[in-house]
Amino acid sequence: MKFLLDYQIYYEWLSNGVLSLEIKNHIIIIIKSIEYSLPLLIDPFVQYNQWIKKYYNLEKIHFDNQYRLKQDIVAMSIEQSFLSGSKINIKNCNTLDSLLYPLAQWKAI
């Protein structure tokens, strides 16, 4: 597992509108890679989630594990992003971990 939060990223975010006060006052973890999976951002205060969504113009997926059809749509969207290399923003995904690992392993084969 590689983490990404260094001065280069800090200065890039400063120059692109993220204030240093926000960085100091909020917990943020960016996991650059976990073997074969895509980069992952854990942002409990949703500060950087909003910024990254605007900065990278991401497709947004809301995950709700109460509906099976919704799970299938989310799984297909994630699979397509793995295939195409596109970026997606997945929110409200407390139980999504069991889905991501097999997709990441499948893409690595």
TrEMBL record:
<dbReference type="InterPro" id="IPR035706">
    <property type="entry name" value="AAA_9"/>
</dbReference>
<dbReference type="InterPro" id="IPR027417">
    <property type="entry name" value="P-loop_NTPase"/>
</dbReference>
<feature type="domain" description="Dynein heavy chain ATP-binding dynein motor region">
    <location>
        <begin position="21"/>
        <end position="104"/>
    </location>
</feature>
<dbReference type="Pfam" id="PF12781">
    <property type="entry name" value="AAA_9"/>
</dbReference>
<protein>
    <recommendedName>
        <fullName>Dynein heavy chain ATP-binding dynein motor region domain-containing protein</fullName>
    </recommendedName>
</protein>
